[in-house]
Amino acid sequence: MRKFVMIHASTDRKWLPLYEALASDVRLTILELLAKHPMNVKDLAATLELSSAIVTMHVKKLEKGGLISTELVRKQGGTHKICSIAAEHIEIKLPAQPEQLRSFDEVSIPVGHYTRFDVHPTCGLATADHTIGQYDDPRYFFEPERMHARILWFGRGFVEYRIPNYMLAGQILEEIEISFEIGSEAPGVQEHWLSDIYFHVNETLLGFWTSPGDSGQGRGLLTPAWWPDSINQYGWLKVIRITQEGTFLDGQRLSGITVKDIPMSRNEWILRIEVPEHAEHVGGLTIYGEGFGNYNHDILFRTYRR
Fold first, then answer.
1. Helix (H, G, I), strand (E, B) or coil at 162
2. How far is it, in rounded angstroms, from Cα 222 to Cα 54?
3. CB–CB of 195/284 below 8 Å?
């Protein structure tokens, strides 16, 4: 299975080879051809009706930009330069006006630090180097070693996390921001496996997001080498913001719940992530923590205050 990478680019001048590689109709056509299957320079030249020398020049620019990879392969008594797609996504961060600094508290919660759960198979947990207990046995969610889990998954149910509330008397809550990498949970992997994932803070339902699937198109960028190819690889980074105007998921309005609608507890916040039995799409949940998936962090819970 080919391994793709995600390119995180910016306006730094070091990314000029990438932008130059994209600035050509011929090179874009080469990317479209290689997306179907790897090809050698000779076959690309024949398909494009160009000379091998010109195609070689284009291939070198794509390779320098990190968009394709090449390798020499012995085949039919000769040596062929086989070209393959190397990148699946490109994210470009443009310069932005500095945000006004705000006071906040941030807590990073490892995925295994839940305090309550109700999970149903398929389910399981794993640390950075081994599976905890056996697959599809919810009893192992009680295992003390779960505190070291970096990934967990279940077919339906919920996990609940208690997070310290560091706000002081007299301070006013302005916004809550929660981010995590999540996806569906199918037996094995299924690119199209819908799952309605619900989010609650302090027993207040914020809304739900429908995960499109349980990823399996290439390995996660951070997924350990020992982890099988045939199960969960990476998810989607989702950012929830509960503001004074409502609740937003990745900038899109999720519900009308505001920070004033969240009951305050003096000592803690309670975050629940759930796939309920009554959901339209009961496709399970996978939570990826540090060292798994594509984003190297655990569940982040941030509160802004003044």
1. strand
2. 37
3. yes
The tens digit of pLDDT for each residue in 118-132 reads 999 999 999 999 999
Q: How far is residue 299's CA from residue 116's CA, in Å, rounded to a whole number?
A: 16
Gap between the Cα atoms of 262 and 114, Å rounded: 20
Q: Look at the block and give the residue holding tokens 């149910």.
A: 157
User: Which residue type is seen at 19?
Assistant: Y
How would DSSP label each residue in 71-101? EEEEETTEEEEEEEE-EEEEEEE---PPPPP
CB 47 within 8 A of CB 38: no
Point out which residues pair with 238 in neighbouring strands.
180
Cα end-to-end distance, the chain, whole Å: 51
Kind and range of the H or E element at 248? strand 247-249
Distance CA 201, CA 168 (A): 19
Which residues lie below 8 Å from residue 208, measured CB to CB, with a gap of 6+? 196, 197, 198, 199, 279
List of residues 6+ apart from 233 with CB closer than 8 A: 189, 215, 216, 217, 218, 219, 220, 223, 227, 293
Best CATH choice for the domain 5-93 from the list 1.10.10.10, 2.40.160.10, 3.40.50.150, 1.20.1560.10: 1.10.10.10
How far, in Å, CA of 136 to CA of 140, rounded? 9
Give domain 104-305's CATH superfamily: Galactose-binding domain-like (2.60.120.260)
pLDDT digits (tens, 9 = 90+) for 231-267: 999 999 999 999 999 999 999 999 999 999 999 888 9
Whether residue 149 contacts residue 112, with contact meaning beta carbons closer than 8 Å, is answered with yes
Asked if 5-93 and 104-305 have one fold, the answer is no
User: 3-class DSSP state for residue 306?
Assistant: coil
Where exactly are the structural domains of the chain?
Answer: 5-93, 104-305
